[in-house]
Structure formats: C-alpha cells, structure tokens
Amino acid sequence: MIIKFTDHKYAQAHMEPIHNGLALYSYTTKVAEVRDGWLRIFGLYSMTTRRHIGWFMRELGKDYQLAKKLYEDYMMMNIYTGEVKSV
After folding, report:
1. Average pLDDT for residues 42-58, to the nearest whole number?
2. Which of 12, 52, 60, 70 minimizes the number of CB atoms within 10 Å of its CB?
3. Looking at residue 79, what is its pLDDT?
4. Strands of 29-35's sheet, edge to edge?
C-alpha cells in the first residue's frame, strides 16, 4: 500500500508499510525507514531527496538536520527512546 504525503500529494515520494515499520521512497529509491522503532537514513542523494526526507522527518516529529547527522555519522536512532547506535 502506498501512502502519499498529506500536504504534498503530487510529490514523487511516498511511504510504504514494511515489516514492523515504514519506508520512505524518493521516486523509486528507498531513502529512509523506521523499522522496530529504529530510524535509518540510506542516502541524501539530491536536493529533492533531501526535501522528501525532511517531510518524512516532520511526519515523525523530528527535523531534517537530525536525519543528516545520522546519515553522516553512520548511525540510527530509536524514535521512541532517543537511543543512537551504529548502523
């Protein structure tokens, strides 16, 4: 099932439920996911992708700068506890 962003229905990004979580796709590339509460960012490929990740982060009540930091430091974060660990 594809889930479009409420405020960006025509964007080339969508979310899809995955086992125990939710994945973000920018065009056809999976760029982020939350699985078992752990947020992981796979890439900051383009300005458009970074915008899509920003929207995804807002859906989670977080901001883009956190996603960027997690990606650059090869880390993932538990969105419920704030715990951070290596990928």
Report:
1. 96
2. 12
3. 97
4. 13-18, 21-26, 29-35, 38-41, 75-78, 84-86
| Token pair of 8 as six digits | 């960006």
At position 75, the amino acid (one-letter code) is: M
Place of tokens 């947020």: 39
Name the pLDDT band for 2 (thresholds 50, 70, 90). Answer: confident
| Cα 34 off chain centre by | 7
Chain centre to alpha carbon of residue 27: 13
Check: pTM over 0.85? Answer yes or no: yes
Q: Report the C-alpha gap between 16 and 4 in whole angstroms.
A: 9
Contact between 44 and 54 (Cβ < 8 Å): no
Q: What is the DSSP string of 2-61?
A: -B-BTTBTTSSEEEEEETTEEEEEETTEEEEEEETTEEEE----SHHHHHHHHHHHHHTT
